[in-house]
Design brief:
126 residues; mainly alpha
Length: 126
């Protein structure tokens, strides 16, 4: 159980840094805005992404957040990272810009799997 907790908090901490802290600190820089423009998205898309990423990252690291909201945060990050990879691939080709979101998605997947190992009784049953 201790190993699962270490893996979970390490991977979740990395997601918090990559998807929460970094966008909050750099999301409104000219470089970020230029990157979004190069992909063909409007400027307001940056603000929307930053807000959702910070809220999602906080959702994952705050233990008191309900289980169901954490599931939605994992799903949202999955869609965002896949979309980032596809967008970068379509514009720049298959390079670092298209691969990096998939690497972060791999870290997110490990976090998600460890979350379910730590909290097995909280699976959503409809």
């Amino acid at each position: 159980m201790k190993k699962n907790n270490i893996i979970y908090w390490t991977t979740t901490g990395l997601i918090f840094l990559f998807e929460g802290v970094m966008p909050a600190l750099t999301g409104h820089s000219e470089m970020a805005k230029a990157g979004i423009r190069n992909l063909g998205y409007p400027d307001y898309f940056v603000t929307m992404l930053v807000v959702f990423k910070v809220l999602g990252a906080l959702t994952l690291v705050i233990p008191q957040v309900p289980y169901r909201l954490k599931e939605w945060a994992y799903a949202g990050f999955t869609f965002a990272l896949l979309s980032a990879s596809v967008s970068n691939w379509a514009v720049f080709g298959l390079g670092f810009e298209a691969i990096m979101p998939l690497i972060i998605l791999g870290v997110l997947a490990v976090s998600y799997l460890q979350f379910h190992k730590i909290h097995p009784m909280q699976r959503i049953v409809s």
